[in-house]
Amino acid sequence: xxxxxxxxxxxxxxxxxTTAQIQELLExxxxxxxxxxxxxxxxxxxGYRVQLASLLSVKTGGCEEDCAYCxxxxxxxxDVTGRPELxxxxxxxxARAAREAGAQRFCMxxxxxxxxxGAPFExxxxxxxxxxxxxxxxxxxxxxxxxxxxxxxAEAGLTAYNHNLDTSPEHYDRIITTRTYQERLETLERVRRxxxxxxxxxxxxxxxxxxxxxxxxxVLATMDPHPESVxxxxxxxVEGTPLEGQPPVDPLDFVRMVAxxxxxMPHSRVRLSAGREGMTREAQxxxxxxxxxxxxxxxxxxxxxxxxxxxxxxxxxxxxxTPWEEQLPERSACG
Length: 335
Known about the structure:
CATH class: Alpha Beta
Largest sheet: 10 strands, parallel
Helix content: 25-40%
Number of domains: 1
CATH superfamily: Aldolase class I
CATH topology: TIM Barrel
CATH architecture: Alpha-Beta Barrel
Radius of gyration: 19 Å
């Protein structure tokens, strides 16, 4: 199929994109790509609102996985083990503070290969229930999980489970060897079966090709339904990780990923995630223009930096973007 830049496409809910078609989008002249993304975004997101999400690391470091980008891996000298695992009440106190600062979604992370049953899981369920009682969306990222664990998280009211694919299937084994791509897909299937929404995206700047970026987006865009949340990350090269020497991502490449994700997945929430701290205000505004409708809000993303709350409020005001204030309807027991 030939993609002509002469007329912006209306919203098309498709699940049959090919990698070649997506790469053709990524290679469009930037102005034409932004025009197409704008046409989709304005139709799919009336009012041009942005959701504010806050992210907290509950259990930090000592992870058994060897993800080349991650300072929490026990395989790397950057391992940040040493912080105690947070208890329920301090986590809920942080959630209340995030809500007071304007966040509508509270995300909690555990540096695990898979969810641990017993007391840690029971505490996780209490945190999820507590966040939902505050009127916020609750998201968890904690590695692989079983069907039974997914069902209990749904019963607790979990809004979303984050499990990123990170990169393309073709590039994956250069980044991670301790978990297969298929295992990641199976985790997403368990989350779906439980009735929990998916938060699933990836990272650019890890030595991948443009075709790899298109392939990652192809996996996401051919899911039916599309992930409800698609975080787009730029590598934060942390000293002590195998990718510490990678050059910074070109901000316009980040904009291209956001715009293409918006075209492919019109109704997904495209989230600006890691890497924002290294971007200028103008580059972040371009991402909002390209179709991003959520930002992580607060000064830390698990273990890497993020612009502070005041800077983000100023950014949104300068862009003329309104924070998304609505809440999801109450979830049923089945999630």
